[in-house]
Backbone:
């Protein structure tokens, strides 16, 4: 019986080691994937995407980052999004643009 308990303890330790390694691999993969993605983001939107990745964006900023990503960084497309089934639809940014409110040119995302 003690031998079985010892085997179970070794297996548990092995599972824990594998889980830690998997987490480390996932984090390394995440950083690389995010860095590659950022290379394709227009410079005007890079800040909001970086803050979202870092977890420092506000919830509103994170929604803006997602909507911009979803619409190829085109504000008008976000404003005119018709995907009403999307849980973010009511929160999407740039809705004022549809109401005629003009944002200054070059303003940051
Ligand atoms: S609200 Fe529209 S633009 Fe924003 S994530 Fe959903 S589908 Fe994409």
Residues:
């Amino acid at each position: 019986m003690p031998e079985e308990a010892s085997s179970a303890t070794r297996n548990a330790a092995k599972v824990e080691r594998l889980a830690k390694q998997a987490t480390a691999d996932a984090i390394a993969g995440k950083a690389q994937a995010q860095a590659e993605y950022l290379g394709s983001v227009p410079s005007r939107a890079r800040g909001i995407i970086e803050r979202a990745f870092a977890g420092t964006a506000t919830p509103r900023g994170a929604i803006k980052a997602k909507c911009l990503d979803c619409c190829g960084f085109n504000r008008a497309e976000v404003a005119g999004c018709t995907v009403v089934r999307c849980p973010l639809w009511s929160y999407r940014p740039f809705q004022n643009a549809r109401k005629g409110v003009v944002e200054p040119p070059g303003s940051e995302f």
Q: What stands out?
A: Residues 2-98 form one domain. The two ends are 64 Å apart (CA to CA). The pocket of iron/sulfur cluster is lined by residues 66-67, 70-71, 78, 81, 83, 86, 88-89, 92 (CB under 6 Å).
